[in-house]
């Protein structure tokens, strides 16, 4: 047994693949299965196990990917967004640097214990966090042509996969992840593999649409190949995805910095959107979660009360309550945490969001309304408590400890 | 001024049309506007007023249509479902008979005050309730060929509309409502008109799909014709609509009678599904709301506690709390009210639901998750409280009292 972050895991006895499908609202799978586009998944659900789990809120990519590979919430691993306000330096920074990590990953522990481990992500921003401290293969589709043995534990990836490096804004970026996973399993048969895609398709296309179904049909084909090679496969998601528009089809936004500027004076409060990352064309940095640093001397409770009355706001919590409810590191969130409801996102100032790149009605995530995610294992499960609240970061626990 | 159910209304000074679009989750409008299928609505939202309102829970057709025409919740008008357990007779009955009505409609009051009124519904089941006590025109698409002056205040409807009587399971049934509304306005120019469609399309097709967009494009064309004739138009919905399936694409159902039969013995409790009506092919009588009559001597509170722990259950309330929260007549609901969450419906016994007619993944309604509905008026509004919680049954108030 291996113990990581106070959870124990059996060592893998068969190749074990955990797949994090970015933005995979469960209805994407349901509609694709119903329409006949996912024969592998249909069989996996019938012969294996299909659960619905809760992801971490904020329902963003980095916190959830790190939760899945550490088996723990952000209060343990420290990654509570893609972006944060670093109170030590007084600057807003990306959270891609491993220095923000507060816990080791199960992947690193497995590698240290002598198992072969491979990680493939769509975007490079996640790679360094996921691969931190891990001996093995770890690369992104985005920079597949720049892999070196030293940095990535592998080279010649483009030749191995036989596909060109895709655009960072494409469904192909995710397909490359699956194609690489299949080739790695065929050629190196790692004991454990973690595959993590990007939600380019999900930000644009609703469940059941031809484009979404095509994506899931593609995925299904690769997962079927992995199953045919004897892999245990656990499939989950970092977060769901919802339409975030008003009746006129335009983004429905609470511009929270503008609100605070009117309320407390310009720039007095600092609104942080943890969805922020360098790739914002498809969502304009608009998600359903924000955290707010108030100026010294401003009481949080009356502000929270006012914010709760804003149309489209779902939950407003002060730091302590937010850290407890969402299992977040209290020193890395602001005085207030704001979560907007299913059809509404939170922005900073209207003038700071460039929505010109949105070529489809906004779909996004970040809130409680995007917390439901699939948790599917292509095997029957044993020894599980039926009353347990499933989390996406139980994926390795199920795949290693509870497979029949 | 006219006072009906303790609300006051100005008399119409221009033709006023209230449209209840059955199952119109707001995202249907958003996606159709964004894709360019609703030029009239796009203009109405830009030059008029677009609100999102809460419908009545249970989010079913009859309670909400009656709320819209009475301006009051079911605690006032008495219609709390399509179907109920009549404790007086000990039988389960449809609630289509006007004997169940406890309040007059604004339509009847307007007619009594000398205004010309016309009502067109898709299905005939609603017609008798909506037209109760009302002098004027009142007919359904379903029985458009059987209209008589005596019963419906009009005859020759099929000739007037110039379309054949559509199938009860079709988008055409709703189109006939709009086409009839336009022809009535062209030929008789009623002071007030109420148009109410059916959710055949919405039960099958998600927002933004070609079939949904085609429906809303059709509707938009007719509403544009009404606007061109100078009508004030208020558009709302009886309820929203959500996907109600599990990961495998099959209906995700809590079979509540089966649960009670195991818990208390067969047939000891009685589960009532107020969605039940004679037209169940497209939803199999599965919705997200149920009420339960417990056997004498069974305490409700412990049952409620157990039910709250069932996966997929959102809210379980005892009679008094349910009647208060949802504004329902306490004498017409059971000891418990159960509401399932966004992706889950409630059934009675698995053996009593025929799902063979479902030719698409289940979409349905009834719960709190289907409470958001559009409330659009093609005019600017004046004198409204920005903090007001909008209800779909404010449609006549807005159209008569608050149009600029």
Specify the oligomeric state: homodimer
| Most extensive interface | A-B, 34 and 34 residues
Q: Which second-level CATH architecture of the largest domain in chain A applies? A: 3-Layer(aba) Sandwich
Q: Please state the overall shape of chain A, judged from the principal axes of the Cα atoms.
A: globular
Task: Please name the fourth-level CATH homologous superfamily of the largest domain in chain A.
Answer: Alkaline Phosphatase, subunit A
Q: CA-to-CA gap between the ends of chain A?
A: 17 Å
Query: What is the residue-averaged pLDDT of chain A?
Result: 96
In short, what is this structure?
The structure is a homodimer. By secondary structure, the first copy, chain A, is of the alpha/beta class.
How would you describe the overall organization of this protein?
The structure is a homodimer of 404-residue chains. In chain A, the strands form 6 sheets. In chain A, strands 4-19-10-3-9-7-8 form a 7-stranded mixed sheet, sandwiched between helices. In chain A, strands 13-14-16-15 form a 4-stranded antiparallel sheet. In chain A, strands 1-2 form a two-stranded antiparallel sheet. Chain A starts with a strand and ends with a helix. The longest helix of chain A has 19 residues, at 210-228. Chain A has helices at 26-34, 39-47, 61-70, 74-77, 106-112, 124-130, 149-152, 157-161, 172-187, 200-204, 210-228, 256-264, 300-308, 319-326, 395-401, and strands at residues 2-4, 7-9, 16-20, 49-54, 83-86, 91-94, 117-121, 137-140, 192-196, 232-236, 242-243, 253-255, 270-272, 289-293, 313-318, 336-340, 345-347, 363-364, 372-377. The model of chain A has no long low-confidence stretch (mean pLDDT 96). In chain A, helix 9 (172-187) runs parallel beside helix 11 (210-228). Chain A is built from 15 helices and 19 strands. In chain A, helix 6 links the parallel strand 7 (117-121) and strand 8. Chain A folds into 2 domains: 2-240 and 371-401, Alkaline Phosphatase, subunit A, CATH 3.40.720; 253-364, Gyrase A, domain 2, CATH 3.30.1360. The first copy, chain A, is globular, with a radius of gyration of 20 Å. By secondary structure, chain A is α/β, with parallel strands linked by helices.
